[in-house]
Here is the input.
Amino acid sequence: MSILQVSDVRKSYGGIQALAGCTMTFEEGAINGLIGPNGSGKTTLFNVISGYETADAGRVTLRGKDITNARADQVFALGLGRTFQITRIFPRLTVLENLHVATQRRGFVGQLRSWKSGAERSRAMEVLDFVGLTPLAEEPAGGLSYGQQKLLEFAFITVAKPSVMLLDEPAGGVNPTLLRGLADRIRSLNNEGITFVIVEHDMEFVMGLCDRVLVMHQGCALTAGAPAEVRANPDVLEAYLGSDMREAG
Amino acid sequence: MTAIDVTPKGAAAPEHIPYEPPRQIRWTSTGLLLAFLAVFPLLFPNPAVTSIAVITMIFLVAAIGWNIFSGYSGYISIGHAAYYGIGQYTVALLALHAKVPAGWDTFGLLPVAGLVSAVAAVPIGFVVLRVRRHTFIILTVAVMFILQLLAFNLVSWTNGSGGLEMSFPTWQGSYFNEPFYYVGLVAAIVACAASWWVRRSKYGLGLLSIRDDEDRARGLGINATRTKLIAYAISAFFVGVAGGLYAPFIGSVYPQFGFDPTFDLAIAVLVFVGGIGTLSGPVIGALLLIPLQQYFYLQFGNANLYLIAYGVLFILILRLLPAGIAPSVTQLWRRALIARRRAAARSPAVPALAGQSPAGQSPAGQSPAAQSPAGGLPGAPPATAAVPHAGGDEVAR
Ligand SMILES: Nc1ncnc2c1ncn2[C@@H]1O[C@H](COP(=O)(O)OP(=O)(O)OP(=O)(O)O)[C@@H](O)[C@H]1O
Ligand SMILES: [Mg+2]
Here is the structure.
């Protein structure tokens, strides 16, 4: 069953058509990979879905509900969260505070209580430990290295735990050992029923992790299928190589 | 820029360096400061001094209130005089029409002044908070001038430029200032408690995340509009209370002094000097700058020279401590602590030092101002000075 649907979405910046009538369906409970050459519109698609950019045309639905051009907090409230390719953390808050921004707490009284009290703390510490940032818990997050910021973003999206997670290049700048752990973490969250859409250029990572891979090219959906199918598809190769060759020529 | 520069990037700190001075130092210094403020009028009963102290308390309340919104959310408002004026007119009009006798009864109107301001802040905030940064600043000023214009023109209510007179309280005489001072002190303590509470609550963390990256915060489920609006109303409340205290102290309300454009500049300057977005910043700023400003005013008032002296001081402080006093003191403290631990780690001869609690002695780099609030002015209070921009209030483990 599809959980997230994008129909004929268009978005241009000046003369550049970042999304040129993109239509895609993401399966519920799956780890969906989204690949495509640089500039094919993957990040723009994430921005439109998650409420960070408005679409010029088209429709986005989440569980059948129209979320086209909804605000980011509304989209999150409906259970869709994301990370950013270029990390966006809260630089002047400490690493631990960053995580606690993402922990969810309902109700008036909950908001009045200290951000440290409550059950979410152990979860935050556990995730922090997983990404290896515990010794830096009290440091301002702005001082973290790029890879660490990437991990922090992954940490806070897993703490926030929306039912659909869009990850924009989660492996960027992350060391290979931790990368395996990252894949395991994604799999185990997926077993809990969380749907993933993962943009990633590390093909080994994508093909090993994803149930299904969708390919974008020049702002449109090119093809979709099981990793092996997509890998074997000559159009995909052409999309990647074609752009490379044009650059070279 | 921050203390983290001291440790190499990516390297885990060998042992935990707390983000701010320990609890004992903070509580002791807060206690000392409070004790000093409580006995201040007894030590300096001269009415010229106590009247400066009253003005200081009024600005202290307003500055703490202003910081709850502008400091924590990062939205710099230059129009909070709107609520200063609303507070003043609320008290003056209620005193006139409800025939509240001058004196202690007038102080009963302070919460009302705060509430009226907070209620007025909701629709105003709803409009001005739709925009950010420079546009926001300009809108807040515009709203303040609109209210000033209303005060000039709604003559049947406000008596326009003629202003409203309030009768002075019955305790007139050598003890005129003291009740105002103590009521101001209580209001400041309440404001401080509110600020502390916002800073540590889950709600307040949302507010701080908006300061750092509002759109990112939205993407993590923070309803930024509501969060900002609540802080805006809380901050209007305390600025309204400050206005409500000012009106009976001066004994009159005029549109240009109620909705005073220089009010916000004064507040913003002192909060920046003290350390914006920190708990102690507005306290340090107000206790340091308002008495100085008043003193300069008395000394060189006629030629407006005092503004020049004040300006020079402001530039000096911001040159020396660009982040403001509170964060700078914290950083110095933290650097000194790290340096000391490094030194201790290098020379095994003094292992005792490394294990010692930092509470034991004042680190070498700490500002001498942090030692004791001695002297005529309630100078830089010690380690309330120690809440950094982003610090949690205790050690994690
Ligand atoms: N804010 C913007 N302003 C102008 N052009 C933009 C903007 N955002 C994206 N674009 C353009 O839209 C196109 C698609 O960009 P997008 O970032 O979505 O690609 P991508 O598939 O994420 O690429 P990459 O793999 O390099 O991250 C690019 O040509 C880019 O230059
Ligand atoms: Mg991208």
In short: The longest helix of chain B spans residues 47-73. Chain B touches chain A at residues 2, 4-5, 9-10, 12-13, 16-19, 197, 200-206, 208-209, 211-213, 215-224, 389-392, 395-396 (CB under 8 Å). Residues A 13, 16, 18, 36, 38-44, 85 surround adenosine-5'-triphosphate (ligand 1) (CB under 6 Å).
